[in-house]
Write a structure and sequence with these properties.
- It is a single chain.
- The strands form 2 sheets. A 3-stranded antiparallel beta sheet has the order 1-5-4. A 3-stranded antiparallel beta sheet has the order 2-3-6, with helices on one face.
- It is of the alpha+beta class.
- 14% of the residues are buried.
Length: 83
Amino acid sequence: MTKLTKTDISPLNYWIGRALATRDFGHVYVHAAWRGEDYVHGDIVFVWSGWGRSLLSGGHKYKVHARYRSTGEPVPTKVLKSL
C-alpha cells in the first residue's frame, strides 16, 4: 500500500478532506509538522481550531472548519463536495 503525502494532492483537496473528516468524526488526526497556516480559496477560508492534543503515535487531534469569508457562516457540505 502506497502512503500518500501532503504533496500528492492539491492544497484545496487536502483542506476539503480535513474539513469533511472533522464534520464526520468530530476531529482529524494530522502530524504537527503538517499543520500549516489557514487556507483561502475564493470566498472560503479553511481554519484550524487551535492546537491539537498530542497522541502517542506522533499525530495530533485538530478540527478544520470551512467558513465563508464574507459572512463567517459555515460552508455547506454539499458545496465542499462539489469543489
